[in-house]
């Protein structure tokens, strides 16, 4: 069991996250931001393979449910999404937590890299789109994140458990 607090830098926010690891990994979070208040519950298998997400705006007017069988079959709000077939992980725009999913699941050795297609979820409009990304482990506590669709890249510092400490320009752990 672990608790984390992150401050959003680019978009002013404060996230409070609670993670429990057992037969499954379950994360529950509340994010207060310039975009409003959001909450989510995310469930992964023990090996950090994504399975289920419920994300909602605090007003209760907007919610999103995403599920995966862990092998490429995805549903969004109950509808099958063939465009997400290559995805294993999910990437939520409003939190650094979901960077931990591929970091923990892949357990790359220093110098190794992995190209992934993520189910990227934008908090602004709750859309889900495939997004090509690369993770390279540079050191024990340092990973390079690269968007393969743009020139965006950041070297992310993590703790020894793979949770983000600093995501330059975007998030910092308090």
UniProtKB/TrEMBL annotation:
<protein>
    <submittedName>
        <fullName>Glycolipid-binding domain-containing protein</fullName>
    </submittedName>
</protein>
<dbReference type="Pfam" id="PF06475">
    <property type="entry name" value="Glycolipid_bind"/>
</dbReference>
<dbReference type="InterPro" id="IPR009467">
    <property type="entry name" value="Glycolipid-bd_prot_put"/>
</dbReference>
